[in-house]
Design a protein that fits this description.
- The chain has 531 residues and is an alpha/beta fold.
- The chain has three domains: 4-41 and 80-116 and 272-354, FAD/NAD(P)-binding domain (3-Layer(bba) Sandwich), CATH 3.50.50.60; 120-268 and 357-408, FAD/NAD(P)-binding domain, CATH 3.50.50; 426-526, Jelly Rolls.
- A five-stranded parallel beta sheet has the order 5-2-1-9-21, covered by helices on one side. Strands 13-12-11-17 form a four-stranded parallel beta sheet. A four-stranded antiparallel beta sheet has the order 26-33-28-31.
- A hairpin with a 3-residue loop joins strand 14 (243-246) and strand 15 (250-253).
- The longest helix has 20 residues, at 136-155.
- Residues 424-527 form the Cyclic nucleotide-binding domain.
- Its EC number is 1.6.5.9.
Length: 531
Amino acid sequence: MEKTRILILGGGFGGIYTAMELCKALKKRPSDDLEIVMVNKENYTVYTPMLGEVISGNLSPLDVSIAIRDLCPRINLYVQGVEHIDFDRKVVITSINSSSVKNEIPYDHLVLAMGLEDNFSIVRGLSDHGLHFKSVADALILRYHIINLLEHADTEKDEAKRRKMLTFVVAGGGFSGVEAIGEMNDYVRGAARRYNNIKDEDIKMILLHGYERILPEFPPSLSDYSYNILKGKKIDIRLNVFIEAVTSDEAVLRGGTVIPTKTVVATIGGAPGAVLKALPLKKERGRIVVNQYLAVTELPNIWALGDCAYIMDNNTNKPCPPTAQFAVREGRRLAKNIIAEIDGSPKKPFSFKDLGMMGALGHHSAAGVVLGIKVSGLLGWMMWRFVYWSKLPGTVRKIRVAFDWILDFFVPLDIVNINLDPTENISKMHFEPGEMIFHEGDPGDKVFVILSGDAVVLKGVDQKPVGNLTIGDCFGEGALMHDRPRSASVRTVTAVDVLTVERKAFKALFTNVPVLREAFASLIHQRKDIA
């Protein structure tokens, strides 16, 4: 007998719990008539409520990463990315690492659980210089970025550069932003005690939020409590503030205020990815509209849940919030509705009474509402840990997390810095008007090509203009090729985007491509003033 294939796109809470509930249904069915397939970019799912503790090192990355095959042993997992969904042919086109080799996966029922992506395009330069906080890799990169800055700040003699290294900015005062800055603040201040030349007062932690109170999901009293707790931890909270641009050296706020910093972590909401945007389905605020059964009404056998779906709660007649506890219940209900659809039995509408919400505010402090009761402080923190620990899938992982938490009371913070920087290559940078791309005397570490905007070349003690640069111009090659300091400065006139080629990649191209070598040799000869 030909099997009915249920294809799930996405391995977050919604997709995973849909798959887990379907696996339970398979055990109860008299015939082996169903096939469950999942497509996800990783072979694991992330337990996001505990992700912040990876920053501080309280938890190992493996503690918050759970193999999908262990949770759903009866599914067929494709560790691939979704390229396109063809509703007419009822196939999903996937690829491995966006390669040219494509794979077609047919389906009978399609579950869209692809979540949302960081919407960094709404802020100039954020995609080039902002740090994410959604995945295990993001948390690790942020952790080692912090340690790297502490190492350099400890020996930096230039006070302005040092202050910049020790200023940390988080944009977004929702749960993710508050939990991120709480963990960062505890970790940075704790780790700084191990550095001889860094004092606690040198460290600046800044939380930017575009509305009148942080954690707007909370009742005002709990938002105010959380605000005061964070302020007591020496976190500078700026409300009704929007970030407009980010460069490698500063965050620019609406109104012109500039914060010199090397760290901007953005938790400013998400947007559907390109695949979801292209779907010819009704959307509300970018999310796919589904009915009370979590089904798309325009097409048969298409379902959606989680962050990417716009779901009206049958219990409250309000849109369901994009939280883990809702995604879990949506997944369970959706699986049962798919089985009901296949068997021709009645489906049930989704409804769920919110059990509450909790947010960590750093070590030994949290706030929340549980079953209508407000909790905060140390009690709230203990409840926060217990609730999420109890819901962590797998006994072995529970034991590991409990052991790590106990060990955390007895061992000092770990400040080992494992280099996670990518191999030197080509990247993109953004600069605001009037910003220095590099200074005369700086070491030559990369070559620049202007993609948009204009810049001016400055030379000498009085920084006299000696040339102009515009779209398509290349500069900085002289100092790099001759291993000498920059012989001039370059300052932007307008907002500028540049392509940068790191030393190693540039020298490889220069050495091995004769045409390129001749072109740059001629360029160096013509423009001796531009380092």
